[in-house]
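May I ask for a protein sequence together with how it folds?
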Amino acid sequence: MSILTIQGPAERGRDPRQISVRTGGSATFGICGCGGCALDLRLPAQPPVDFRGEIVVGPDRWRIANRSNGEPVIVTQVDGRADPTAVRPGEWLPFCDDMATVTPSAATAGPLLTVFFTADAGAAEVGAGCPAITPRPDPELDPGARYFAVLAALCEPVLLDGRAGRVPTSSDIGARLALSPRAVDSHIDYLVGKFAIVPPHTRSTGWKRRALIKYVRRHDGVAQALLARRDRQPAAAA
């Protein structure tokens, strides 16, 4: 059986509050300004910010739902091997990290939650989102637009090989599409805004391209649209 522990921030003179959840269980967390919200783990914050969610535990991963009204929830691997992930309001996303921090998108004085996870690979996964809350639909895409061609060129290694591999640079994409690297960067900026991708707390070179690849991998509708465009293109002459 997998075990997940949610730990709140340390307060002066007190041990941090913890809640442990086993496979199939769930726990709610968040910031409450009125003192009456039904939360398993109520977090302190002055002033209060829009930060509420739920974690459901499966055998080999855990899922987090953002129950906030309008703010993304940011999940960050403690070992720093991946960029932080933004969970949009109403969205469920799976994670398998054995240790991660969970914070609101607004600036805070440190992580509000730390998640510790020990997986049990032998059990059947349990847990589902609330049927009354649905993820935000993927934005409409124009297959004939230049930004669409840029996205396809960026993500093609993921779609064809199933792995990220080397992330194409703006120069790589520009050479393929007869665009300048600056024009490619402009299209990438547009796509980051179109998909409402939240910048990571620590921005490294190429984070936008990596974030777009991660978005496509997690949104099957976008990936299928890119593959359909590729399938419609005529084969190159021998």
Observations:
- The CA atoms of residues 154 and 168 lie 6 Å apart.
- The two ends are 56 Å apart (CA to CA).
- The longest strand covers residues 26-31.
